[in-house]
Design goal:
There is one protein chain. By secondary structure, the protein is an all-alpha fold. It has one domain. The chain has ten helices and no strands. Helix 2 runs parallel beside helix 3, helix 6 runs antiparallel to helix 7 and helix 7 runs antiparallel to helix 8.
């Protein structure tokens, strides 16, 4: 049981690492908290610094969800019948770290990539469906927030169809709710037809 609580703490602090800020500083770019949309996620970093910076940020944000959940799924064998609940708690801790990072005064990102990392480990088929949906929607509209919202809405359905676990289904519903909640401003801009397309090097545009 002590390993479980240690992993919860590790998941939060790993999830709280602001990879967008780290990548921007290493590449000599502007602080994503004060440039573009002010968001530390991959889309804003991509817009500010280009494809490589966006890809590095995306990979880091995915991994900080995937790594602790992987450790939980294959390491928390002492939880017995509570194993899936423990894995779900670890995933939530990682996502909470991303949304409320202690390193940045509890002001973080929108949880899309980190949630995807969690889903990638607990249900690779569901993750594949969501990734395909994201790409298809983005190719059609070229707006990152539209693709993110579509994937968030589809997350519980994908998990329900492709995973037999009720615990993971509940987890997916919570993650979906987090993502939708964090995209409130994007939804308002979409309703006003003010949400921009995702393009590199746009600097001060409003990022999803």
């Amino acid at each position: 049981m002590s390993a479980f609580f240690l992993l919860i703490i590790l998941a939060y602090f790993l999830g709280a690492i602001p990879f967008g800020l780290v990548v921007a500083k290493l590449m000599g770019g502007p602080d994503p908290r004060t440039a573009g949309s002010g968001n530390i996620g991959a889309a804003n970093v991509y817009r500010l610094l280009g494809r490589n910076a966006g890809a590095f940020t995306l990979f880091g944000d995915i991994m900080k969800g995937a790594v602790p959940v992987f450790l939980g799924r294959f390491g928390l064998t002492d939880l017995g019948g509570w194993h899936e609940a423990g894995v779900a708690a670890v995933g939530l801790a990682a996502v909470a770290g991303h949304i409320w990072p202690i390193y940045l005064g509890f002001r973080g990102g929108k949880a899309v990539a980190t949630s995807f990392g969690v889903v990638l480990v607990i249900s690779p088929p569901a993750a594949a469906v969501l990734a395909a949906l994201y790409v298809l929607v983005w190719q059609r509209w070229r707006i990152s927030s539209v693709a993110s919202l579509a994937a968030a809405w589809a997350l519980p359905a994908a998990m329900g169809l492709l995973s037999a676990s009720k615990i993971y289904l509940l987890l997916s519903a919570v993650l979906s709710a987090f993502i939708l909640w964090r995209h409130q401003e994007n939804i308002v801009r979409l309703c006003r037809a003010q949400e921009p397309e995702l393009r590199a090097g746009e600097g001060e545009t409003q990022d999803p």
